[in-house]
Amino acid sequence: MEKRTSSPYPSIDRPVLAAIGVVLVGATAFFAYSDRQHDYKWYQAEFRSQVAEKFGDEKAAGVRAGVQQVWIPGLQRADRCTTCHQAVAWKGFEDAEEPLRTHPPEILKAHPPERFGCTSCHGGQGWAIDTAAAHGEVAHWEEPLLSASLGDAYTMGTNKGALIQMNCNVCHRYERETPGAGMINRAKALVEEKGCRACHVINGRGGTIGPDLTAVGEKAPEQYDYGRLSGQQTAFAWHVAHLKDPRALVQDSVMPNFHLSTTDAQALSMLVLSWRPARMSADFIAGVPRADVQTAEQKRAEDEMKTGPGAWFVQTGCFVCHSIAALGVKSPAQIGPDLSTAVDDTQKRFGMTVDDFIMNPTGTMSVVLTRQIVLDTEQRKVAIQKLREAFAEHQKQQAAGAAGPAVVSHQPGS
Amino acid sequence: MKLPFIHRAPDEASAPGVHPTPFWSLRPRTDRESGDAVVSNFMLHWFPAKVYKPSLDWNYSFWLGTMSAALFLLLIVSGLPLLFLYVPSVERAYQSVKDIEYVVTFGWWIRAVHRIGAHLMVVAVVLHLVRVFLTGAYKNGVGAGQQREWNWVIGVVMLLLTLFLSFTGYLLPWDQLAYWAVTVGTNIASSVPFVGPEVRELMIGGRTIEQATLIRFYVLHCIMLPGALGVLFAYHMWRVRKDGGLARADRAAVLPAARTTAPVASKTYTLLGVARGTAPTVRTSSLDAPDLTVNAVPDLARRAMIVVLATFAIVSLMASGIPSPLEEPANALVTPNPAKAPWYFLWLQEIVTDTTIRIGSFTINGAFIGGVVLPGLLLTVMTAWPWLDRSPASAAGRWFPSDRRRQNQVFLLIVIVVLVFTVIGMFLRGPYWNLYWPWESWPDIPGRI
Lengths: 414, 449
Prior knowledge:
The complex is a heterodimer of chains A (about 425) and B (about 450).
Chain A: H1 10-36, H2 39-55, H3 57-61, E1 70-72, E2 77-79, H4 105-110, H5 113-116, H6 119-122, H7 131-134, H8 148-153, H9 165-171, H10 182-194, E3 201-202, E4 205-206, H11 235-244, H12 246-249, H13 262-274, H14 296-307, H15 311-316, H16 342-350, H17 354-359, H18 363-372, H19 377-399
Antiparallel strand pairs in A: 1-2, 3-4
Helix pairs in contact in A: 9-13, 10-13, 11-13
Chain B: H1 31-39, H2 42-46, E1 50-52, H3 58-61, H4 64-85, H5 93-102, H6 107-134, H7 148-171, H8 176-189, H9 196-204, H10 211-242, H11 250-254, E2 269-271, E3 275-277, H12 285-288, E4 293-295, H13 296-321, H14 346-355, E5 357-359, E6 362-364, H15 366-388, H16 405-428
Helix pairs in contact in B: 4-6, 4-13, 5-6, 6-7, 6-13, 7-8, 7-10, 7-15, 14-15, 14-16
């Protein structure tokens, strides 16, 4: 080029420009290369060679290459899991190692992946196509893969893979028993057995002493107080610890300690976290109950009690926690002591007469009588009268020598 | 006016000095054609024909304005593919960003280029402003009719547009980071006295950050603000030329008078083919000092190319190495702890916290002082500064001139304070806005399972 100025720059600037050109080309090559790097390419090649080995080259040619996805508009899910997990619908890979293993076929009959996707049940991040991100083991993804290794991290005992049952119960929450969801079934039985509804609204029914648990699975992990929890700070770990000893986490809790085993606490925590709205149209959950209603048996027993000699206790709500055996009232929860002997009990347990106790209750009953069953002075007098009648009836039955109904006495935490 | 189009004559043999290459095939046959070649050359009107040589020095301007322009160009180019992929709806925005991140070919890189380019543009524009202030480049020199002070005002407006562009882009991924950064940012705006809530309502299109906010920010981000910035950028460049180039070029005029060399009689001069003679009829200081100037093409063009391409290369490499964050989907019910404004507003958030004083039940609201009074005052003084600066014209276009020492010191002090507050806000503020030293770990962020 003809030299038109006395500029000293070309000798420096031209090599600099050339060097930057080289860097730019290098940078472009680098991102283009990075964009092509994915684990799935390796897995797909591996699967193709395995298929070729087992079924011949013709079948192997039919193995799909590239990113695969199940797109379910109704669930707003695009699950790309089958990009790596290619053997899901193939027969013959039942014993292969993940990600190239056949999915157990029975459960897929009722839950075809093309309708429900993968992450609805398994958790994880369907959008992603690389292992860590797809399994949700990354920051800012709150639905990790509910895998056996996650169960292992929580020392889930014999059934490490059970965590996935949480997601079963998002749709199956109103079923009493769900086949294959053993931990959840156990937890549901515990809810009835321990009488959680005495204090909590569960599936729309229950008391108001404790918080409503209908949508507690939606509560954000940041909204729990981890101040007194050691170890992992997760909502699940919080619930396990809280169920095992409520007051260890929430000091002024009135929730009794049920002395649950670790497995029971884990089962209940799974159940509790599964109580979240199923955001899907009704046709996805056709065939499962849509409400948790009392059984005919429960209703009949309740109606009988409502009209029997202990009707006052039933109508007032005492029976939610207390049986009154002498009057034939049986509490479904039996959290508190039998009220047949309350007149005697208040002396033994609190050192005061039943009159004083009802007028100025302490412990759990002070909470119950200010929040759950609010009675004015007149009504409290009636209560004392009713308790005396029950005690009289109890004594009468004892004196009759007949083997009176065994008094069930549960020790509440207070 | 129709510009003449110059055709190549294919059958003609190459004239001496004319290079018949595939990309440059101009062979003017008349003086008029030569003139038209100049008149219709885009590069020669983007740049002046000749440039004062020291204006090209790396260590005078650091080419920060060019860098800002290169980043703006890169942001437009990288934003175009994102326009095709991103869905501005509260239901779909987050998912579309996930798709861009995970499965769109080069999507993660395009998004990273856009994000890093945006952050760097804020940095480059601020540094450009700092450079212009320190060198007094907003001052008029010796040229007649110079209005550099107005170009400074335009520059300040362009800085605000850059910040607002970045801020509006912040919301679009619709994740927790986006939602709460915009919440904090717009809450600061709501502390304007009397009309605060109305200002916030105008900004976010309602009382909560929702679909109305998203579409508002989206349109501002993709159309209004880039359009405004583009127009101002063109005017900014035009004004630089009208004001006689960089302030430094004015120094050429105050240098010892160039020698008076008689025009060489043997050379023929022509002015765009319109006039012709044996002596130039136009005298300018740059023509007077041929050893002080270089041709814009190629010397200025090459340097500009170096800066632009180097900027692209740096952003590309950073984009390949730094993953773009995408947090949980936006959730109005869960406030992340700490909730931080975008980093360039963190100095304000920091000042807001530090000026919020509680004496018993009595609270002096810091948002008004830190969010309105202080930045408003700074902005007003900064905008008006060219008229407040009484230093002589000879102080323009020089680093740290002695007659501007005091104002440069005060300006640098303000810059350092802003920087320190930004760093505190970025790196030392943890949950509950408590102070955490870098060696102290934050409490774990809880997860669900």
